[in-house]
Amino acid sequence: MNSKLSDLDQSKLDSLYQELKENTKNFLGYPVSKDFDYKSILPFLEFPLNNLGDPFMPSTWKVDTRKLECEVLEFMADILNAPKDNWWGYITNGGSEGNMYGLYLAREIYPKGMVYFSQSTHYSVNKNLRILNMHRVVINSQDNGEMDYNDLRETISRNRHMPPIIFANIGSTMKEAKDDISKIKKIMKDLAIDEYYIHCDAALCGMIAPFLDPKPAFDFADGADSISISGHKFIGSPIPSGILLAKKENVNRISTAISYIGSKDTTIPGSRNGFNALILWYAIKSLGLEGFKARVNDSLKKTDYTIDKLLKAGIKAWKNPNAITVLMPAPEQELIDKWQLATENGTTHLILMPNTAYEHIDKILDDIIPSIKKNN
Questions:
Q1: Paired residues of 50 in beta bridges
Q2: Cβ–Cβ contacts within 10 Å for residue 317, how many?
Q3: Quick check: 336 pLDDT over 90?
Q4: Closest to 201 in 3D by CA, of 185, 232, 179, 233
Q5: What is the pLDDT of residues 18-28, one digit of tens each?
Q6: What's the CATH class of domain 25-37+295-375?
Q7: N or C: which end of the chain has fewer CB within 10 A?
Q8: Which residues contact 24 (CB under 8 A, 6 or more apart)?
Q9: Could you confirm whether domain 42-285 is CATH 2.120.10.70?
Q10: Number of neighbouring beta carbons within 10 Å of residue 232
Q11: pTM higher than 0.90, yes or no?
């Protein structure tokens, strides 16, 4: 492609770049890491990278990064305690696609199942359930955003004729609350329910929870059947992406051989972004286990620093255990817009991602604390 932009269009592009550069400086309200540097892999943009078909099977399409995709998945399977020789996965376009896949598997196993999820669940889940035409019940949330296990127990007991499909939040959107899989499994045991499915939405915390002490009960060893994680959140990426892992025996139920690509149709999209696999592979190889541990500890320290500063200023701030999300009363709308703060029902949160500098924390707090005091 040798064509050149007009002066007007080039000016639009230049203006957009400067606008994005400025806007990227001013946000702590969304869980997106921006401390990445992928210049080393820019030359791969010369290729139409398409990870067509199953990541683990050969294909007649060769312009792909599926070998690196498999390395990413193996790394994730290890830290999520996936069952040996009985796991499968692929790199998705984002956490919502991974959640849809987990629910899709659950529906195929239990066509008459009932999905249970809490009030704190991400808005996209209701949409996924409508698309999949699945029965669903919303469970109450506790004040901290965690699922109300008593309500779950009572609701399941009233629907014993329908196999339970549990959609668990491992880091809810506003409060970073983590539903406890061990408590959910105990409910199933107490109710003598043997047939059920547990999907974990670990969009943000999937790359945090494995490195916490104590580790939350959320992975395959704790009883999960599938887990979805976002790649552009704690890992960091210029392109939205995600990682889905599930038990292989369940995936085998839905796979279909496609002769003309020489592979199986096991994923939701046919064509998949091969550059995403390259980005996540580069991040994982660059950081390694110790790098991720350091990122988690760094974020936790910055969270404690932020809470301490807010409390000393007389602001009622709080967080869930081992969370990097700080909750506080909302400031004025002008500051919500300025700092791009996610706000719900009069509560605003700050998410202390690894890229957040202490100077940045001081700057936003000095700006919003007077406003919060004025509003409350």
A1: 273
A2: 20
A3: yes
A4: 179
A5: 999 888 877 77
A6: alpha beta
A7: N
A8: 34
A9: no
A10: 23
A11: yes
